[in-house]
Amino acid sequence: MPEQSIEVECSHCHEAAHYKLGHDSDIDEALTHLKGKTQIQIKSIIKNHKLDKAEYGYALYACPKCLSLYNPYDVRVEYDEIMLFQPFYKCQQCNITLTKAKQPYTDYICKECGQN
Ligand SMILES: [Zn+2]
Ligand SMILES: [Zn+2]
After folding, report:
1. How many whole angstroms separate alpha carbon 48 and alpha carbon 34?
2. 43 CA to middle of ligand 2, Å?
3. CA angle, corner 95, sides to 92 and 13, nearest 5?
């Protein structure tokens, strides 16, 4: 699936927020989007372990408490038949773990007017 962009329009202020979704074709491409500890860990898995399955690309996550949307570059790597590497994302305001956002995305908080 190539990278695509989605638009979520607020029903209050009609401001449209744009988010990226979709996957890159290879893990080297994916690595260019990843930073810091996550990038180092994935590189080490590729080098030192048997990679079984890798999924990566922009995804929409949301805070279950304040309903803010986040658009991280997500990665999930299965290796050595039983191991799984997947980073967790936290809400910058609430410091709790984000969960995958569900449709309709208009149920989440608008960054412009703060309503949903
Ligand atoms: Zn709004
Ligand atoms: Zn939050």
Report:
1. 19
2. 30
3. 45
Positive or negative: CA dihedral 87, 60, 17, 11: negative
The pLDDT tens digits for 38-71 are: 999 999 999 999 999 999 999 999 999 999 999 9
Domain ranges of the chain: 4-107
| Residue matched to tokens 């898995």 | 45
| DSSP state, residue 109 | P
Stated pTM of the model: 0.86
Are 17 and 71 in contact, with CB atoms under 8 Å apart? no
- Distance (angstroms) between ligand 1 centre and the Cα of 19 equals 15
* Alpha-carbon dihedral 30, 33, 35, 41, rounded to 10 degrees: -10
